[in-house]
Write a structure and sequence with these properties.
three-stranded antiparallel beta sheet; two-stranded antiparallel ribbon; 9 strands; 18% strand; 217 residues; alpha+beta
């Protein structure tokens, strides 16, 4: 058995995203077919909790929109006009006790950037730095969520169809090993849109951070 969270956009309380843990039968193996089985098992188990329409946000999704929303396919437009993969910008912006940021990672493929040895050998993560601006590591995953929301924000009208989704999953995300999660970022985007706060949140990073912190309590 395994347990993974389902991220549910919430419009009826202060907390904009609910994290619902769901236990399900795990199918071991690295083959894509095994991962798709795990997605199906997770979704079937979540349905017993009343979440009937779920969307896997990853390259393992059985829906095109779920694959398109994967962070590995999202791009970040920088102020100088350059466009880079979101994952590369996220990893390359990390600042540690003994190094960083590493903007050379912007030019790599996402999986290659994520495996760069410096991300493991530079000490504790203390901040993010992008285009000369410093970003905090708290609230949890705020910089990642900011990058992700910026990446999909231009498609906000088309993405209103996500309002019908009960919850979002990412089968690769293990909360015991990672902090940032594309499914949670997507759920936060939907919650902001459904509560009419998306425009306000996107005005500045400071305002985005304030909203995330306030509604995470």
């Amino acid at each position: 058995m395994a347990e993974r969270p389902v991220f549910v956009p919430n419009v009826n309380g202060k907390r904009l995203v609910l994290e619902v843990p769901v236990s399900f039968k795990w199918h071991p193996g690295m083959a894509p077919s095994q991962k798709r089985k795990n997605v199906s098992a997770l979704h079937e188990a979540a349905q017993s909790k009343g979440m009937s329409y779920l969307l896997e946000v990853s390259s393992k999704s059985d829906r095109e929109i779920g694959r398109r929303l994967s962070a590995f396919y999202q791009k970040v437009l920088l102020k100088d006009g350059r466009v880079h993969a979101l994952e590369c910008v996220y990893q390359g912006s990390k600042v540690f006790d003994d190094g960083g940021p590493y903007p050379d990672l912007f030019e790599l493929e996402p999986r290659e950037a994520k495996r760069d040895i410096r991300l493991k050998s530079s000490g504790n993560l203390i901040a993010f730095e992008l285009e000369g601006e410093r970003f905090p590591i708290q609230p949890k995953s705020v910089f990642y969520d900011w990058l992700y929301t910026n990446a999909i924000y231009p498609e906000r009208d088309w993405l209103k169809r996500l309002d019908k989704v009960d919850g979002f999953t990412d089968i690769e995300f293990n909360p015991e090993k990672s902090i940032s999660c594309q499914a949670r970022s997507c759920a936060f985007f939907v919650a902001l849109q459904k509560t009419g706060q998306l425009e306000d949140a996107m005005s500045t990073f400071s305002r985005f951070s304030q909203l995330q912190e306030a509604f995470a309590l």
